[in-house]
Write a structure and sequence with these properties.
696 residues, EC 2.3.1.8, Phosphate acetyltransferase, globular
């Protein structure tokens, strides 16, 4: 039984990081604990971390000591080989790997980069390591600027070489010409016929383009301005040597300007073009010759509202330009956009279900937050829904929107004035492409009159006039809710700025509750270290009576089922079983009886104390015959005071991610955010809302 996978490449710049990041995301959604190991890393300066290890560990928050994630540097390996001590090399790698294997359910092992000469030796080393670790291999190649025959020949040679020593699970050819995907895949399948999975991924321009930061580092540049925009992508570059009026005609989108440091006309012209609606965006400006603009020019630049990176470098323009042309893009821990794009690319082109089935050869009863979040994302991707975000001017909402669009998980509409939203996106440097979202100003919408008339018809019995309906429909919460009512959106997420009442009132007025449901309530998905607990109701109902408490429990159980968790309901109180007396505990006991009567198939226990509900040892002691005690997945609190304080205490003291509040009981999904919510909270809540919409 394999507990790991080895990712090996056969050439430089293969895009192996796309595969590693995608695999890690997939594995964290399928396996309780995933480790990462990179046997051989590049030679580094003292105190510097390997970029691959740093990127994977920081993005996925892996709990591994850095020194335990690798065995040797490249020069150390060459020294051992030159001394005839290759056996010692393998022994140490096996030792390091086994130490990780004891801690983790599955290990993703990343091979070397082929970034230097001795590629034949590197191929042998990767085969030797994977063979001695007993791991199947995923081979990664690249098809950039190659003919089909050249790609197929090199892939088949690599496959046959590895296959002599190890099992080749999958072959992934990266950076292929988009027009050749089908033909390349067909030819590879014709040549490699032993059941090995074949995947072809097209070249993604945003992953192939270096950032200004990468270019600056490669040129040993000095950043004069624009430190906060160093992650700008550079898709083109050109030399500003002609007069400004002529050079402006050569600018392309996300172009890097290369010009001597004394060409104030080109520098200022490029900066102005970047903020002009009539010219493409500029990614940065490289000032050659070691020349710095004069003080008045620097002062003028410093006063501009938007400044892309200005970087001074040594060397003449011709030499610098050639050097920039040779810089290869890489993915690092700070470039979240590239990481997200890599993961989304992998998930789009790789049959992850099939690959996971072949990789994961063991079973685990643990349902971790990583698994939960991965499964949520996959479910949302399976049936893409349209979610409206009324608070289009909030920075957190805009950043969450960028993350959601980058993951291709939902269709989004932001409410607000388009010019103001564009201005905020640019000002805050948010990587959100407005061409990929809908922006609606309620009063300018072609649906505004219809929405107002609809609201008037729905509420005229409450003495609402048509003019009052128009005034009401100009409110973003009402407009967003009406979009759902009319079928122009599938769900809404609000509350980052507005109160719960402001978010919920329009939903109660005309979305209304589901048949048979009298009460809107809420749950939080509490993502603890080793499990998911569902807390309800911690946000909506202050002091529910027994009937209402029973309805909260039933709704929470249904929601929990919808999200793939078996509901085992604990009706919480200050006593367990029949020992407690008093009005509060009697309310919980009565609510439990109501649930048992109305839904006899539900697993429920109450009244029960929190510790007995979640701790198997205590649960067995206090309620030895209960199938819920110690195993509760749904915890129903007796009132809002207890529930709200408990969820916040658990969240703060354990570091748990609290997803919610997720509202339940409405005909269409509308979810409320805390005004202290984070970007990740909004991101998760939108995905939850999309899945709720799938179940309507």
């Amino acid at each position: 039984m394999s507990k790991g996978i080895y990712v090996a490449t056969i050439e430089p710049n293969s895009g192996k990081s796309v595969v590693v990041l995608g695999l890690m995301r997939m594995l964290l959604g399928k396996t309780a604990k995933v480790g990462y190991f990179r046997p051989i890393i590049e030679d580094l300066e003292a105190g510097e971390m390997d970029n691959h290890i740093n990127t994977v560990m920081s993005h996925f928050e892996l709990d591994i000591n850095y020194k335990k994630t690798y065995a040797y540097t490249r020069n150390q390996v060459l020294d051992l080989y030159n001394q005839g001590r290759s056996g010692e090399l393998i022994d140490e790698i096996i030792k390091k790997y086994k130490n990780l294997e004891d801690r983790f359910d599955f290990i993703l092992v990343e091979g070397t980069d082929f970034s230097h000469e001795n590629s034949s030796l590197e191929l042998d080393i990767n085969i030797l390591i994977s063979k001695n670790l007993g791991l199947p291999v995923i081979i990664v190649s690249q098809g950039d600027k190659k003919g089909l025959k050249e790609i197929v020949d090199s892939v088949q040679l690599a496959h046959d070489t590895f296959k002599q020593e190890v099992d080749v699970l999958s072959i992934i050819t990266n950076k292929a010409n988009p027009d050749d995907l089908s033909a390349l895949k067909e030819q590879l399948k014709t040549r490699i016929t032993n059941g090995t999975d074949i995947t072809v991924i097209p070249k993604i321009p945003s992953l192939s383009s270096p950032t200004v930061k990468e270019i600056s580092k490669a040129l040993c540049g000095e950043v004069l301005f624009g430190q906060d925009m160093l992650n700008n992508l550079t898709e083109h570059f050109s030399v500003g040597a002609m007069q400004l009026r002529n050079y402006l005609m050569h600018l392309k989108e996300n172009s890097l300007v290369i010009t001597p440091g004394d060409r104030a006309d080109i520098i200022l012209g490029a900066l102005q073009a970047n903020i002009s609606k009539n010219y493409p965006k500029v990614s940065g400006i490289i000032l050659t010759g070691g020349l710095i603009p004069e003080a008045p020019i620097l002062k003028l630049i410093e006063g501009l509202s938007s400044i892309v990176p200005l970087i001074s470098v040594k060397g003449g323009t011709y030499h610098v330009t050639n050097s920039i042309g040779n810089i290869k893009s890489r993915i690092d821990a700070e470039n979240i956009e590239k990481i997200s794009t890599s993961i989304a690319t992998f998930e789009k082109h790789v049959d992850t279900d099939k690959l996971a089935e072949r990789l994961i050869t063991f079973e685990s009863d643990i349902f971790t937050p990583r698994m939960f979040q991965y499964n949520l994302l996959q479910r949302a991707l399976n049936d893409k829904k349209h979610i409206v975000l009324p608070e289009g001017y909030d920075e957190r909402v805009l950043r969450a929107a960028a993350k959601l669009i980058n993951a291709h998980v939902v269709e989004l509409t932001l409410l607000g004035e388009e010019d103001k939203i564009k201005e905020l996106i640019e000002k805050l440097d948010i990587p959100l492409n407005i061409n990929e979202i809908n922006i609606i100003s309620p009063t300018k919408s072609p649906h505004f009159e219809d929405y107002a008339k609809t609201f008037y018809e729905l509420r005229k019995h409450k003495n609402i006039t048509l003019q009052m309906a128009k005034d009401t429909m100009s409110d973003v919460s009402y407009f967003g809710t009406m979009m759902i009512y009319k079928g122009h959106a599938d769900g809404m997420v609000s509350g980052a700025v507005h109160t719960t009442q402001h978010t919920l009132r329009p939903a109660l007025q005309f979305i209304k509750t589901k048949p048979g449901v009298n009460l809107v309530s809420s749950i939080f998905f509490m993502c603890l270290e080793d499990r998911i607990s569902v807390f309800g109701d911690c946000a909506i109902n202050p002091n529910p009576n027994a009937q209402q408490l029973a309805e909260i429990a039933i709704s929470s159980a249904q929601t929990t089922k919808e999200f793939g968790i078996e509901p085992k309901i604990a009706m919480l109180s200050y006593s367990s079983g029949s020992s407690g007396k008093g009005a509060d505990v009697e309310k919980v006991r009565e609510a439990t009886d109501i649930v048992k009567t109305q839904n006899p198939d539900l697993k429920i226990e109450g009244p029960i104390q929190y510790d007995a509900a979640v701790d198997m040892r205590i649960g067995k002691t206090k309620l030895p015959d209960s199938e819920v005690a110690g195993h509760a997945s749904v915890l129903i609190f007796p009132d809002l005071n207890t529930g709200n304080n408990t969820y916040k205490a658990v969240q703060r003291e354990t570091g748990a991610l609290a997803i919610g509040p997720v509202l339940q009981g409405l005909n269409k999904p509308v979810n409320d955010l805390s005004r202290g919510c984070t970007v990740d909270d909004i991101y998760s809540t939108v995905i939850i809302t999309a899945i709720q919409a799938q179940n309507q």
